[in-house]
Amino acid sequence: MTVEPNDLRIKFELAHDAAARLRKNLDEENKLDAESDTLTSVYYDTGDLSLYEAGLSLRLRNNGDGHHVQLVEFPNGATHYAADRIEWEEAIASERPDFAVANGHAYPPALNEKVRHALKPVFRSRVKRTSHVVSRGDAEIGVTIDDNKIDAGEHSAAFSEVEVALKRGEPAELFQFVWMLDETVPLRLAVEGEGARGYRLLKDAPAEVIKTVSIPLHAGMTSADAFRVIAHSCLHQVAGNEQAMCAGNATALHQMRVGLRRLRTALSVFSGFLIDSQIDTIKAEIKWMTGVLAPARDLDVFLTEVVLPLRREYREEKGLQSLYRSYSAQRAKAYERARQAANSVRFRALMLELVAWIETGPWTMNQNEPARLARARPIESFAVEELTRRRRKVKKEGKRLAALNPAERHTLRIRVKKLRYAAEFFSKLFPGKKRRKRELLASLKKLQDALGDVNDVAVQAGIRGEIIGGAKGRRAAAKNSQHRAFAAGLIIGHQKARLESLLNSAEDAYADFDDAKAFWKGFEPPALPALQVQPVQLVQAIPPAPEKSEPPQAA
After folding, report:
1. What is the pTM of this model?
2. Of 285, 282, 280, 330, which is closest to residue 303 (Cα–Cα)?
3. Nearest-angstrom CA–CA distance, 548 and 532
4. What span, in angstroms and rounded, lies between the C-alpha atoms of 237 and 491?
5. How far apart are CA 150 and CA 513, in angstroms?
6. How would DSSP label each residue in 428-483?
7. What is the mean pLDDT of residues 148-157?
8. Residue 160: DSSP 8-state
9. Which of 233, 274, 363, 438 has the fewest other C-beta atoms within 10 Å?
10. Class of residue 141 by CB neighbours under 10 A (exposed 0-12, middle 13-18, buried 19+)
C-alpha cells in the first residue's frame, strides 16, 4: 500500500543527553504511560549501491513483534515533514525482500529484476522508540523520541531525534508545543534521514552539501500552498548545509547562503499576500544570517580567484605569500563567526520561527479581500504573470548593460537573480518545453554568474584598498611594505584586465537571455474575479518565538 505523510509533522535532532531529559519532562507533564518499542531495520542495496545512486532506499523493518515490513523510501526534501517519505510499504513474511507482494503497485524503475537479484544487506539500524500522546486544548499531538544506532560495518553512529505530529486540532497548537519543548531541550531541524545517514557512514563520507532541487509544484495548487512548498525547500537547503558549513566546507557555506537568498526571493515573489505583523522581523533575521555568511564567502572568492592564480604565476613574490597568509587567517576568523552564529540561540530560534510562520503565520489568516484572493489564486496563473513581469524588467534594463554604472549593474544583478530563482521555483508547473526551460535557465545562470563576478571585483576593491592602506601604515617594516605594495599592484592589474573580460561575458550572457524563449509562453491563465478592496486586517495566528537569553560567546 502507498502511505502518505501526516499533514504536519516535524522532526528535530537532539543532543546526545537531551532525549532522556525530554522523556522525563513529558512523563512528569502528562502523567501518562508512554509506549516503548524497539525497531530494527536492515537496508538492502547492490554491491555498487545502485539504489542509493537512484535516490531511493529499500529496508526491512522488524517492529519487535516478529513481523517484517518492507519499505521503499525517497528523500522528501521538506523540513515540515519527516526527512524520509514512504513511497511503498507492505507486511511480508520473509526475512529478505519479497517482491511478490506488490499488490498491483508499480516498483520504481531502479528496482528492476536485475537489481532485485543482486540485493544484499548493506547496513542496519536499531531504534529504541518512546511514544507519547499529548493533549493541548482541542489538539492532540504525537511525540516520538528515538534513540538510534546505525551499524555500517567499519563505521557506526548513535543519534537521537524527536518527531512531533499533529493528530488532531490546529497547527498553531503544534507550534506552541514546539516552543515549549525547545525550552526544555534545544531543538534543531533534522534534514538527514536514517537511510541517508547510514549510506554516509557506509561510504565514510563527510556531511553532504545540499544544493538546489526542483520544486514539486503542480497545476491547481493555491498560491499559498505553493509558497509553503517553496519556502520549506529553501529552509531545507539552509538547514541541510549547516553541519558541513560548521566543519569549514566552503561549498556548504555558499549553498547555505544560496538557500537564504532563495528564501528572500520567495518572500519577494509572494509579497502580495505575505502581509502580517511578523514579516519585517522575519526579513531582518534572514538578512542578519546572510550578512554573517557574506565575509567568509567574499574571502573564499578573493583567495581562490585572485590571490591563488597570482601566487602560481609569481611563486617567489613574498608580498603575495604574506597576503595569502594574512587573508587566510581572516577567512578562518570569518568562518568561526559563521559557525558561532549557526550554533547560536538566535539562529535556532529563527529556524523554528520560520517553520511556524510558513505554516501558520498571521499572513495565512489575513481576511483582506485582495490578500485572501491572492492566497487562493491557482499558482500556474500567478506564475505566468510574475515571470512575465520580472522578465520584462530584466530585458528593459539589460538592453543598456554596456552603459550601466556599478550601482545600476548591481540592481540588474539582483533582478536577474530573482527571475532565475522564480523560474526555477515554477518550472515544474509547465510540462514539456524542455529545450526552452534549459536554454532560459542556463542563460539566466550565465548572466547572474557574470554580473556576480563583476560585483565581486567591486567588493574586492575594498580589500585591495585595505592592502594598500595597511602597507603604507607599516613604516617600521619598510621592506615588507614594499613587497605588499607590489602585490597590491599585481592584484589591481589583474582585476582591471579581468573586469573588461567579465563585462564582455555579461553582455554575451544577456544576448543569450534575450534570445531565449519564455517556457511559460502560451499558457492561458483563467480569468480572476474582481477584487473588493478592504482595509488590511492583520490576524495574529501564533505568537512569535519567546525571547531567550543567550550566553556571551567567545570572540
Report:
1. 0.85
2. 330
3. 42
4. 34
5. 48
6. GGS-S-HHHHHHHHHHHHHHHHHHHHHHHHHHHHHHHHHHHHHHHT-GGGHHHHHH
7. 95
8. E
9. 438
10. buried
